Amino acid sequence: MDLYEHQARELFAEHGILVPRAEITDSSKEAREIARRLGGRVVVKAQVKSGGRGKAGGVRVAADPAAAELTARQILGMDIKGHTVGTVMLAQPVDIEAEFYVSYVLDRAAGTFLAIASAEGGTEIEEVAAARPEAVARIPVDPAEGVTTATAARIAAAAGLPPQTVDVLVRLWNVLTREDAVLVEVNPLVRTAQGRILALDGKVTLDDNARFRRERWGAQEATHDDPLEAEAAAKGLNYVKLEGEVGIIGNGAGLVMSTLDVVAGCGARPANFLDIGGGASARTMADGLNVILSDPSVRSVFVNVFGGITACDAVADGIVSALDSVRLTKPLVVRLDGNNAARGRAVLDARAHPLIQQVPTMDGAARRAAELATNAT
Ligand code: GDP
Ligand code: MN
């Protein structure tokens, strides 16, 4: 779950990181009042969960309260990368002398955290990273050790950040670990003409697994890159969209993972990961099929079930009743094995749906599903 900038800055402030004075509103009239309270001249900033607001015209300076009202009116309702602006933040402007980039991210591949920092922060950081990767320092952080003053000094030195940022780097690490975040990013972290270090922007991604103890942020939507993933999550399904053509449904994460491998071994690409777990009810099956069939790149679906506590006949019943609410548009290859497999197969045979075929082995079924996906036009 991503936080809004104004929420991220709230966390920064609580952990002792300096931020400009600011207030949020959804009304341009109120924006004028806020600007007056903040001293007249303000920066008006769109609150959307997307980067690149500055370049999209969602961050603008207003010279006085009247201009703040006008600017707020222009930014409210704006579309930034598919997000409609419903709230603006008005912040006291800061005299920027230098802009830095700092972040901590969970590096899943390396099984550790990564500090990323650069003395060339600001809206061009992506271009800087692409053109001159050496301008961006990447330092692994041992999660057990954390960021001590010594670690922070190393990060700052590697990135060419001034020594005053060391304290902020330690505090930002505290935000990451104490607030259940998997990513914290400040871009820009600035040095003012007076030599103070301030966070002018903030991105915080909280670990979705810790939502139960983060009620403070309300029932915000989980972070999903893909609309189908969001829909699946809303239905309580464990679904991840992939690039391929063979839709996959299985019971148990381990079985689903090996199903992906076997399908790939047959020369086709899995279209998704979907673990229905023990829930083989008609509802779960219908939800799962609906999600997978709405993916236009899916050409065949492989249902791979090893009956255990959930018996195969229950899964077969689930598939058959799902057919009442789901219009099957693509071939379904079903492999049932384990507890009550024979009974489950009989249930599907009796239904005799023209698009459903059964193959008794995992390898055979994967091969069939792969053929159907690669031959289908
Ligand atoms: P983003 O484009 O979504 O990353 O939004 P930011 O909050 O990072 O703002 C974009 C840019 O606007 C920053 O890199 C700053 O250069 C500039 N900016 C933001 N706030 C202020 C401010 O208070 N004073 C000044 N002078 N510039 C600001
Ligand atoms: Mn920014």
UniProtKB/TrEMBL annotation:
Checking Pfam families in the record gives: ATP-grasp_2, Ligase_CoA
Q: State whether keyword Transmembrane applies.
A: no
Look up the record and name the pathway of this protein: Carbohydrate metabolism; tricarboxylic acid cycle; succinate from succinyl-CoA (ligase route): step 1/1
Q: Which cofactor does it need?
A: Mg(2+)
Q: One GO biological process from the UniProt record?
A: tricarboxylic acid cycle
Origin superkingdom: Bacteria
The record lists Mg(2+) as bound by 187, 201
**Domain ATP-grasp intervals:** 9-215
List ligand-binding residues for ATP: 45, 52-54, 94, 99
- Keyword Ligase present in the record's keywords: the answer is yes
UniProt catalytic activity = GTP + succinate + CoA = succinyl-CoA + GDP + phosphate; succinate + ATP + CoA = succinyl-CoA + ADP + phosphate
Q: Which GO terms describe its cellular component?
A: cytosol; succinate-CoA ligase complex
This entry's comment on the bound cofactor is: Binds 1 Mg(2+) ion per subunit.
Q: What are the entry keywords?
A: ATP-binding, Ligase, Magnesium, Metal-binding, Nucleotide-binding, Tricarboxylic acid cycle
Q: What is its EC number?
A: 6.2.1.5
Give binding positions for substrate.
Answer: 251, 308-310
Which Gene Ontology molecular function entries are recorded, alphabetically?
A: ATP binding; magnesium ion binding; succinate-CoA ligase (ADP-forming) activity
Q: How does it assemble?
A: Heterotetramer of two alpha and two beta subunits.
Q: What does this protein do?
A: Succinyl-CoA synthetase functions in the citric acid cycle (TCA), coupling the hydrolysis of succinyl-CoA to the synthesis of either ATP or GTP and thus represents the only step of substrate-level phosphorylation in the TCA. The beta subunit provides nucleotide specificity of the enzyme and binds the substrate succinate, while the binding sites for coenzyme A and phosphate are found in the alpha subunit.
Question: What family does the database annotate?
Answer: Belongs to the succinate/malate CoA ligase beta subunit family.
Q: Provide the protein name.
A: Succinate--CoA ligase [ADP-forming] subunit beta
Name the source organism: Streptomyces tabacisoli
State which gene encodes it.
sucC
